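Weekly modeling sync, notes
Attendees: S.R. (lead), two postdocs, one rotation student

Agenda item 3: backlog of single-chain predictions. S.R. asked that every request posted to the team notebook include the full sequence so nobody has to chase files. The rotation student volunteered to paste the first one in as an example of the format we agreed on. Action items at the bottom.

Example entry:
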Amino acid sequence: MWGYKTGYTVGVKTKDGLEIREGGKSGELVKTVSSSDIKNETIPHEYVTITTFKKWYNRSDVGDYINLDYSLTGFNDGRNQVPPSQIKTFFGESVVTYMKNYPSGSPVMAYMGPHSENVTASSAESLGSHPEYGDAARAYNAMQFARAWNGTIIPPKTGSNGKENIGFDPCPDPNATGGSAVHGVCPAGRSLRGATTAAGLPLPSGIRWGELSIAYDTSPTVGVKVYNNHNYPIKLVMWTEGSGAGLVINSRVVKLS
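Predicted structure, as returned to the notebook:
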């Protein structure tokens, strides 16, 4: 049983502070908070840290809003929306933990029950050496790519991005905008591409054929989306072995049944 991560509680910037509303920007007003009273005790911070919120507040305009908490909607069994206050009660802490990692709109497996897991396809790619970009940073980025996608569960006939809270190191590249790029993610992208396409899934959006699997301007996580065209849910498993230029990035597609 799965639903979709959907914005529910929002903070709307006002002239003197913000309004906290449930059900979206025009939803029910819960309370108002003055700009001088913005802190953990006054705004929801399960998904957005107070530091991130203050950065948003300082650069936003009056009327802008930010999602502070999320519900689950669009369940495959037709059940009603589950508001934030009931998600842990109904589905457990692990579902909320999963929701924190993935962007709004992502499918979330709320309940699976007893099931079996069978690997349907695997792929591995070596990082290789490109010292002009910095092999240590490239290896770090490849490992981060694996962390971003490892454990992603995609229900049938849906698609999912990777985790949105994963950082990468810029590598010097005179051909890239701004003089740097996230190198090291292309071998990891090829590994993910190899496993997903071998499992009969379409080429993930944001990943290209060829050695340069991810474009300079594409986020390796929220800019890539894997679609599950099968009639059963799948789980993506990624991990790395070795270090430096000898790093190997492994990918598996696992059938959940």
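Discussion: group reviewed the output briefly. The CA atoms of residues 141 and 225 lie 18 Å apart.
Action items: rotation student to repeat for the remaining queue; S.R. to check formatting next week.
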